[in-house]
Amino acid sequence: MTSTQRTAARRPVPAPAHRTGSGIEATGLTKRYGAKTVVHDLSFSVRPGTVTGFLGPNGAGKSTTMRMILGLDAPTRGRAVVGGRAYRDHPAPLTEVGALLEAKSVHPGRSARNHLLALAYTHGIPASRVDAVIELTGLTDVARRRVKGFSLGMGQRLGIAAALLGDPATLVLDEPVNGLDPEGVLWIRTLLKSLAAEGRTVLVSSHLMSEMALTADHLVIIGRGRLLADTTVEEFVRHAGAASVHVVTPEAGTLAELLAGPGVEIAAGASGVLDVRGTDSTRIGATAAEHGIPLYELTPVRASLEQAFMDLTRDAVEYPTRSPATAPEGAAA
Ligand SMILES: Nc1ncnc2c1ncn2[C@@H]1O[C@H](COP(=O)(O)OP(=O)(O)OP(=O)(O)O)[C@@H](O)[C@H]1O
């Protein structure tokens, strides 16, 4: 091998040009229905080569935002562009943007393959591509079965096959893991990552933070139509790790006084329970030992990602519920 060949071999293979669009840009996106503003001055970017998780509680405005990106709803103000243009300005949108929305429009009496063939035919896409997406989405064995007998998971696969039909640079998927079994969830996770690795732009909505932490590189989090966070998963996880220490002692009052100091927050619960933030279990244990204070429990508690997400979106939840998991008994405010 010559040195020139060796250099060429090491150079990363660039993604095909048709797969490297310029992503999605939402600028001041606003949607009002009557007196209610459901999406409020939303600006964010979705970069090619990444999976971006679009998160928010029920009713946050995720589907409405996706519909505006896809030209299905007109923004009251602002704009969204995909690959540098508004969706409706693309001459062949299916080859630019593939979408999976919650509303299904599949003829139940048709087979999966015929459904895809009809879509392909109306968009000038060859039948060979239909067979390619059937294989890619694992539908080969059921491709000739009527869609009306499909399970939820098979229906989601078919929706994704349709979204991939035009080999688009951008994918916009609304809740693709909704209702799927663990195997289906894992399959979607792997697929989305591989599509992004090919240089595509992938925007995927969910209200499951824990799932997005495993799937996405970047997070755009909204609540009541407003941007709450635009961050990498790594950064979000680091933040969520902000720990507290659960302490149980018969001398809670004395220990709390000894631990008090700048940056330390102590919440006292029932029966000698302390929830301490801003210091760690080593210092608490050492302080207790130094003053002969018995400890019955000394447990570092890491906030779960789901908890961090709920904390972030708490004030933006449209239909709040009281859940034992989010409001543990005895937990102090
Ligand atoms: N056509 C419409 N007319 C009036 N209000 C609407 C319309 N479509 C959506 N909304 C309202 O807009 C808000 C945002 O809804 P949207 O479906 O975009 O939220 P979402 O984040 O996708 O929620 P979910 O996770 O429950 O699907 C909700 O309060 C909803 O009731």
Task: Kindly describe this structure.
The protein has about 325 residues and is α/β, with parallel strands linked by helices. It folds into 2 domains: about 15-230, Rossmann fold, CATH 3.40.50; about 245-300, Alpha-Beta Plaits. It is about 35% helix and about 25% strand. The chain contains 12 helices and 13 strands. The strands form 3 sheets. Strands 5-6-7-3-8-9 form a 6-stranded mixed sheet, with helices on both faces. The chain has a 4-stranded antiparallel sheet with strand order 11-12-10-13, covered by helices on one side. Strands 2-1-4 form a 3-stranded antiparallel sheet, with helices on one face. Helix 7 links the parallel strand 6 (about 170-175) and strand 7. Helix 4 packs across helix 5 (about 125-135), helix 5 packs across helix 6 and helix 9 crosses helix 12. The termini are far apart. Adenosine-5'-triphosphate binds next to helix 2. Pfam families: ABC_tran. This is ABC transporter ATP-binding protein. GO terms for molecular function: ATP binding; ATP hydrolysis activity. Belongs to the ABC transporter superfamily.
Which terms summarize this structure?
Alpha-Beta Plaits; 333 residues; 2 domains; four-stranded antiparallel β-sheet; 24% strand; disordered C terminus; nucleotide-binding; six-stranded mixed β-sheet; Rossmann fold; binds adenosine-5'-triphosphate; disordered N terminus; single chain; alpha/beta; elongated; ATP hydrolysis activity
